[in-house]
Design a protein that fits this description.
Layout: E1 16-20, H1 24-35, E2 39-43, H2 48-57, E3 62-63, H3 66-72, E4 75-78, H4 82-95, E5 103-106, H5 117-120, E6 125-131, H6 140-145, E7 149-154, H7 157-169, E8 173-176, H8 182-212, H9 229-248, H10 256-259, H11 262-275, H12 277-294, H13 298-305
Parallel strand pairs: 1-2, 1-4, 2-3, 4-5, 5-6, 7-8
Antiparallel strand pairs: 6-7
Length: 308
């Protein structure tokens, strides 16, 4: 069992870990826990991609059916998509193979410990530990965990102590998230990270047309060269903008919307829609929200609400 001395206490006991399944998140967390001395004894993997991840990231781990993974674990990590979690938990509860006292952790951002109720009734320790990090399936995933915050929800203080100890071991920062606000917590993270990717890819697509003259109308707006000219132009600007926003909040806002320059914004909409109407629609939606935050003048709001 885990020792609960978090600061300057004895090292936590080594745990035998089972992972369901060998996706991007599960293998990254498993590799991070192995680096600090825990042992991933078994994981489940069905697709060719998940088998390859397991063999690459967790080479000493047996690939077994889910019930066998569950039966072997002192710490069972359920790293499956949100829409599969309830069914998995119900299936595990029906088998009664998860031993009483097992620490069962799911990595879903949107769910707390309530979804683990069928297993909790059988005497497991329920935990929701969600890494606030994006996972690409590449080697950097595990390293990034050491700089990440982890949203922890537990049934009681003992559960929180276990979750915090595990997160601190791998270098992360534990953050308590109440059960009832997990959906809002997850929505905020998805809005910030997922939509940032769409925003950046759209900006790269428009800049590629401007700088390289590529015709993108009717094609997917996706770049294929991370070291291309548009990416190099945008990289420092986007990094500075993100840093400024995180450190200074609303006061970091610059540009034509912040200045209330209706003519410039109208021209932006015109040229972006010429490249692809979807680009213009994305710009309009984000500019409108920016204008609302900035308390923009009526003439600018009129430009943005036209065709909205």
């Amino acid at each position: 069992m885990v020792s609960f001395g978090i600061a300057n206490g004895p090292a936590p006991a080594r745990l035998t870990i089972g992972i369901v399944s060998a996706g991007r998140v599960g293998t990254a967390i498993g590799a991070a826990l192995e680096r600090v001395g825990h042992v991933v004894v078994a994981c489940s993997a069905v697709s060719d991609a998940s088998v390859h991840r397991a063999e690459t990231r967790l080479p000493d781990t047996e690939i077994l059916p889910v019930p066998e993974v569950a039966a072997r674990a002192e710490l069972l990590i359920l790293a499956v998509p949100d829409d599969e979690l309830a069914g998995l938990v119900g299936g595990l509860a029906a088998t009664e193979l998860v031993r009483r006292g097992t620490i069962v952790v799911h990595t879903s951002g949107a769910n707390g410990v309530g979804i683990l109720a069928p297993l909790s009734e059988q005497g497991i320790v329920p935990l929701a530990i969600h890494p606030a990090m994006t996972f690409t399936g590449h080697t950097e995933d595990s390293a990034r965990l050491s700089d990440a915050c982890f949203g922890i929800t537990a049934a009681d203080d003992i559960g929180y102590a276990i979750g915090q100890s595990l997160v601190l071991e791998i270098g992360g920062e534990p953050v308590r998230v109440r059960e009832e606000v997990r959906p809002l917590y997850h929505a905020a993270l998805a809005h910030g990270s997922n939509h940032l990717v769409t925003l950046v890819v759209d900006a790269v697509a428009a800049l590629r047309v401007a700088l390289e003259g590529q015709e993108l109308l009717g094609q997917e707006l996706v770049g294929d060269d991370p070291n291309g000219l548009p990416e190099r132009v945008l990289g420092p600007l986007l990094s500075a903008a993100l840093d400024n926003a995180l450190r200074r909040g609303q006061s970091a806002l610059t540009g034509p919307v912040a200045r209330g320059d209706a003519a410039a914004v109208a021209k932006h909409l015109e040229v972006l829609e010429d490249v692809d109407p979807r680009l213009g629609a994305g710009y309009r939606a984000l500019a409108l929200r920016t204008a609302q935050r900035a308390g923009a003048k009526p003439e600018l709001m009129e430009v943005l609400e036209d065709g909205g």
